[in-house]
Structures are given as C-alpha cells and as structure tokens.
Amino acid sequence: MQQRNDLSFSYLYDNYSGALLGVIGGVVPDQEIARDVLQEVFVNIWRKIESYDPTKGRLFTWMMNVARNAAIDKVRSRGYQDSMKNNAMPENGDGDLAGVSVGPKIDDVGLKKVLTTLKDEHRVLIDMSYYQGYTHEEISKALNIPLGTVKTRIRSALTHLRTMIRQ
Amino acid sequence: MNVQEYISSGIVESYVLGLASPEEQLEFENMCRQYPEVLQARTNFEIAMEQQAMQHAIAPPPSLKEEIRKAVMEAAPTAKVVTMHTEPVVHKINWLKYAVAASVVLLAGSLFWNVSLYKDNKKLQSNYDNTVASLTDTKAKLNDIEKEIGLIQQNPNVKMAALKGMPDVSPTSFATVYWDTTTKDVYLMVNNLPKPASDKQYQLWALLDGKPIDLGLIENDFFTSQKRLLIKGKNLRNAQAFAITLETKGGNPTPQGTMYTLGNL
C-alpha cells in the first residue's frame, strides 16, 4: 500500500513539480519561499485529491490553481508582508491592499511574457486578479475604475491571451 | 444563447484560470454539459496552459523531492491516496488470468489513427486531446529523465529501466519500468505508446542473458481511462533489461511481434 502511494507521489512529482514551481514562481519571486509553497501545494493536493472533479477539468488545471492560490496566500500572509521592504503601494485606508505592488512585475517568462503584449490597462488587471488574487470589487476600488469596466477589460484581455498562448 | 459568442467572451479562460465567479462557474459547467463545443474549448485551453506551464517549468533541486514526499506522507493517511481516480491510478491485476482471458479491442498505430480522425471526428476528438496531453507529459517526463538519470530512486531497492521507443518503429514511445528487488514486484508506467490495432496487444518482457521472460499483457483500457501506472506483479527474480513488443491479441509465449520499446536496468 505504501509503495503504491510512493509511486503515485513520484509520478505526480516527477511530471508536475517543475511546472507547478514555475506557476508559483510567477507569484513568489524568492525561490526559497517558492519551494516552501511547493511543499504546501503537494500536501494540499494529497489531502484534497478526492475533491478533484474530473468532469470540471484536467488534473493539471486543478493542481495549477491550488498552486496559484497557495502562492497568493503566501504573498498576502502577515509574515511575508512584514519581510518585504519595498512596498510600491501607499496606504489606502484599506489594510488588505496596502503593501502590494500594483505595477506590472519584472519577469518575462512564459505567461508573463505573453502579458507584455497586452495594453497596460489590461495587463495591470490580469496581474492584480490572476497573480495577486484580487477580486473585481477590490480592483475597482483600488484603481478607481467602474466594476463593469474591470470585468470587460479582464475578459477581453483573456481572449487576447488565448490567441497568444496557442503557439 | 449564441454558443460561439459565449465561447469567445473570455469565460473559458476565466473558468480555467480560476477567475470566474461562483455564478459564472455554475453557468459554465452547465454550458459544458449542454454543448460539446464549449467543453472542447475548455479542454483546448487547459492543454495550452499545461503546455505553457511545462515549457516554463523550474526544476526543483533534487533533494527537495524526498523532503516533500516525507511531508506529504506525514500529513495525509495512506488510505485516501489509493482512491485517486486520476491519471496515475494504480490497480493490481492478476496477469496470469489476464493472459488467458479474451483480449479486448485495440486500435492501430498513429497512421491509422490520423485517418480515422477525419472519418469520425467527434468520437476521436477526445482521443486526439489525450494524445496531445500524453505527448506533453512525455516531453516533460523525458526532460526529467534526462536530468535525473543516474540519481538514486527514493527506495534504494527499486531499480528503474527507461524504455525508449525503437527509432524505426515508434520513436516517440516511452515507458518506465520500476523493479523492486526486495518484493520482486514489477511496475510499468506507460508514458506514451500508440494505441494498438484491434487484433493486437502490447506485451511486456524482461530480458535475462538474452532470453525473454513474459511479464504479461498490457490491457487496452489504459488508452481510454488515462491510467498510466500499472502493477505487473510478477515474481521477477532477475533481469537485465525490459522490452515491450506488439503481439497478436492474447500475446505469445515468446516475442514474435515488433519491438516498440527497450530499456536496460
């Protein structure tokens, strides 16, 4: 029984750990912290595997979102926030949004490289929603843009992304 | 509701990337059930994202695997994992019984597959996606194998053989054999093999001093169910290499057919 689990783990790890670490790295720039998150992610995956519903999508999609959410949680955690010295965003009166950079991050790998092909106003929105985990409402408040505009721009950015990714 | 407009609205990407609201998710899931083209759009984008992620993978340091494995095994009891109903499903088969039982219907090589794709597009669309996906997996796996060949497996008693496709027959085929030298169990991971013809079946062999040892047949359902890891469960005392050949349905006591993959321990 234990052998089977070790092999299942090996299979998942060997095939997907690199891709997941890449996804995490897009949110967490520090490689050491990214690896900590990778460990949390595998533990989460193992624990929650029964909640994965194959009719809703591929296994990798599910794992990728587990990874992205764990990375975003890490970045938002008190410990991480305290350890970050260069916060680009001034206090807004809203504690949750303080200390998180709104501008596009410097990283031109993979999805991020595709992001550079977007218009600035679109890229910022994808960055904030996908990489930083903000809801449309929070973005609307932070950037002082109507909620409807946020949604429309994100959707249009995503369709653009789709054509760029298919290469 | 104009289905094409819905598909082009960005909802597919939102859903796959985890950005859709709960209401949007429910609606999308309904649309997927109702319209195969919506489901197809979802699968296509998922595969594109997966390929993207694989291409921009960051290899973790080799020592991390064992660290994470320990953390995972401590955190979750073993019982749950066995019910994993996804790609790496492991199930024990009585290979003797299987070799004797009637074989199931299998398909031919990829050439035949391409022709059939045009003939019966809808049915094979998902097979095509599985191929793309398994090719992606194979590429990633090949990368990992090339990097990690020579590293010791987690269990020092488990020996591994990488079975690579024969260049003239099927260069993209790939399989891995794990042989536990203490329990004598043999595990086969099929990373990529073309779906065989209806009157043919793959058979696994161990090679010792040039003589082949039958390890049993590979059942067809691994092509349809995305299962990739099988326990061959044979009491294998010694071997030097492993091979997979394509035999007639039901297999043969000694290999007669074309060799698809071969690998040494």
State the low-pLDDT regions of chain B, or none: 79-111, 145-153
Major pleated sheet of chain B: 8 strands, antiparallel
Q: How would a crystallographer describe the biggest sheet of chain A?
A: none
Order of helices and strands of chain B: HHHHHHHHHEEEEEHEEE
Number of DSSP strands of chain A? 0
End-to-end Cα distance of chain A, whole Å, is 42 Å
Count every helix of chain B, treating DSSP H or I runs of 4 or more residues as helices.
10
Percentage of residues assigned to helices of chain A: 55-70%
> Rg of chain A from C-alpha positions?
17 Å
Question: What is the overall number of helices of chain A?
Answer: 8
What is the general shape of chain A? globular
| End-to-end distance of chain B | 58 Å
| Secondary-structure-derived class of chain A | mainly alpha
Uncertain stretches of chain A: 88-108
Order of helices and strands of chain A: HHHHHHHH
Largest interface, Cβ cutoff 8 Å: A-B, 62 and 70 residues
- Mean pLDDT of chain A, nearest integer? 80
Strand content of chain B: 15-25%
Short description:
Chain A has helices at about 1-25, 30-50, 60-75, 80-85, 110-115, 120-130, 135-145, 145-165.
How would you describe this structure to a colleague?
The complex is a heterodimer of chains A (167) and B (265). By secondary structure, chain A is an all-alpha fold. Chain A has helices spanning 2-25, 31-48, 59-76, 78-83, 111-115, 120-131, 136-143, 147-165. The longest helix of chain A has 24 residues, at 2-25. Chain A starts with a helix and ends with a helix. Residues 88-108 of chain A have low confidence and may be disordered. Chain B has an eight-stranded antiparallel sheet with strand order 5-4-7-8-1-2-3-6. In chain B, strand 2 (174-180) and strand 3 form a beta hairpin. In chain B, helix 4 (36-55) packs parallel to helix 9. The longest helix of chain B has 28 residues, at 121-148. Classes of the chains: A mainly alpha (167), B alpha+beta (265).
